[in-house]
């Protein structure tokens, strides 16, 4: 029988709990009050996808670069696939210092930093090539993320933005026009923008943690979901979905974050080393993301149980016209009127 995650490791929940509880608030190995113990520092990096996805690979790369370049005073432990913390508790774990590093999809920050929903705006990007220029740190959208006051207030420091790629729709029904979604219930990340997007397409929504999606699809609690191919395939969602519509309608990007108190406790040269490793992981992430999504699509095609429909430009336009500019304008007060106006003007 197909199990949900392809790369779950053998660590038991009890062992993981012990690991989590054993973390000191600031990640120091050894007992330094300022976060620096004589044994050095450990970054526990928790995330919710498998190691072979764009985020999973970037996390591994970050750990490797730290290992190779930061000396033996700093080490990184990566916990993939919601093994240590999942969507429901990872942001709390970051703020309390139970883990030092995360890279949640921007939508996961909706409650604490609603402006990050800018990245959920449907059809913000026409293709993955558009992503770097729209969300560079010096653009209006980039500043909303990198300089977000709500994150800073909660002691969350932004190191970078990683991509997965563009989202596709999956369900048991063929979907070539918004009305095909009528009556279907889609799992969404906890974002009001995403809820409105689906409502404009006549669908219903249920917010749900990523780790629950496979089971919820299998048991019919939900009918469909949206994700890039790499997330669909690595969680085996395609094995319980008869149709995927390649709509490229939305973006999943990851905010690479570190607990600021922990970061500030690091000696200056280790801070620089973390910054450099994060930048290198971001570069690597952009190099591999498209390839990993292409490969995942091929795996799904070969598996043969899911029909993939690539929308024509005209069909995609109908989906787009139903939500742009309507949903964008609906959330201008949350995202920022100037930012939404600027993004609309760029179209
Ligand atoms: C999802 O919840 O669908 C994604 O954000 C998971 C991820 O981290 O890619």
Order of helices and strands: HEHEHEHHHEEEHEHEHEEHHEHHHH
Q: Roughly what fraction of the amino acids lie in strands?
A: 15-25%
Physical arrangement of strands within the biggest beta sheet: 7-6-8-5-9-11
CATH superfamily of the largest domain: Bacterial extracellular solute-binding protein, family 7
Mean pLDDT: 91
Q: How does the major sheet shape up?
A: 6 strands, mixed
Rg, Å, rounded: 20 Å
Helix content: 40-55%
Give the CATH topology of the largest domain.
D-Maltodextrin-Binding Protein, domain 2
Number of discrete helical segments: 15
Give the class-level CATH name of the largest domain.
Alpha Beta
Q: What is the name of the CATH architecture of the largest domain?
A: 3-Layer(aba) Sandwich
Protein structure class: alpha/beta
Bound molecules: (2S)-2-hydroxybutanedioic acid
Count of distinct structural domains: 2
Distance between the termini: 46 Å
The strand count comes to 11
Looking at the structure, what is the overall shape? globular
Low-pLDDT windows of residues: 6-26, 30-36
Kindly describe this structure.
The protein has 347 residues and is α/β, with parallel strands linked by helices. The chain has 2 domains: 13-105 and 129-163 and 253-291, Bacterial extracellular solute-binding protein, family 7 (D-Maltodextrin-Binding Protein, domain 2, 3-Layer(aba) Sandwich), CATH 3.40.190; 168-250 and 295-345, D-Maltodextrin-Binding Protein, domain 2 (3-Layer(aba) Sandwich). The chain is 40% helix and 17% strand. It has 15 helices and 11 strands. The protein has helices at residues 13-21, 54-69, 90-96, 131-134, 140-146, 149-153, 192-200, 213-218, 229-234, 260-265, 268-303, 313-323, 326-330, 332-335, 337-345; strands at residues 41-46, 74-79, 101-102, 156-166, 168-171, 185-188, 204-207, 224-227, 243-246, 251-259, 307-310. The strands form 2 sheets. A 6-stranded mixed sheet has the order 7-6-8-5-9-11. A 5-stranded mixed sheet has the order 2-1-3-10-4. Helix 7 links the parallel strand 6 (185-188) and strand 7. Helix 2 runs antiparallel to helix 11. The model is unreliable at 6-26 and 30-36 (pLDDT under 50). It binds (2S)-2-hydroxybutanedioic acid. Residues 48-49, 55, 105, 164, 189, 210, 227, 231, 252 line the site of (2S)-2-hydroxybutanedioic acid (LMR). It comes from Nocardioides iriomotensis. Keywords: Signal, Transport.
């Amino acid at each position: 029988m197909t199990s949900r995650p392809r790369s779950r490791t053998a660590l038991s929940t009890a062992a993981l709990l012990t690991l989590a509880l054993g973390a000191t608030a600031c990640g120091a190995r050894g007992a330094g009050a300022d976060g620096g113990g004589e044994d050095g520092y450990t970054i526990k990096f928790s995330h919710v996808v498998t190691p072979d996805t764009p985020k999973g690979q970037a996390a591994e790369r970050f750990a490797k670069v730290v290992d190779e370049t930061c000396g033996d005073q700093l080490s990184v432990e990566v916990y993939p696939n919601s093994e240590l913390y999942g969507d429901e508790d990872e942001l709390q774990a970051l703020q309390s210092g139970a883990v030092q590093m995360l890279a949640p999809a921007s939508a996961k920050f909706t409650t604490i930093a609603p402006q990050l929903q800018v990245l959920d705006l449907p059809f913000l990007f026409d293709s993955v090539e558009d992503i770097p220029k729209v969300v560079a740190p010096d653009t209006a959208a980039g500043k909303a993320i990198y300089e977000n006051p709500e994150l800073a207030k909660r002691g969350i420091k932004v190191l970078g933005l990683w991509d997965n790629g563009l989202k596709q729709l999956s369900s048991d029904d063929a979907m070539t026009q918004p009305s095909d979604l009528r009556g279907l219930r889609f799992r969404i990340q906890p974002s009001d923008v995403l809820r409105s997007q689906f409502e404009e397409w006549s669908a219903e929504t249920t917010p749900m943690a990523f780790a629950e999606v496979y089971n919820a699809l299998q048991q019919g609690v939900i009918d469909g979901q949206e994700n890039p191919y790499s997330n669909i395939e690595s969680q085996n969602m395609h094995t319980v979905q008869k149709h995927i519509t390649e709509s490229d309608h939305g973006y999943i990007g990851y905010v690479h974050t570190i607990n600021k108190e922990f970061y500030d406790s690091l000696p200056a040269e280790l801070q620089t080393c973390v910054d450099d490793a994060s930048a290198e992981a971001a570069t690597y992430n952009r190099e591999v993301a498209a390839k990993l999504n292409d490969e995942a699509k091929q795996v799904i095609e070969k598996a043969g149980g899911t029909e993939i429909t690539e929308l024509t430009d005209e069909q995609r336009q109908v989906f787009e016209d139903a939500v742009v500019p309507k949903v964008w304008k609906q959330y201008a007060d949350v995202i920022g009127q100037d930012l939404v106006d600027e993004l609309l003007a760029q179209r």
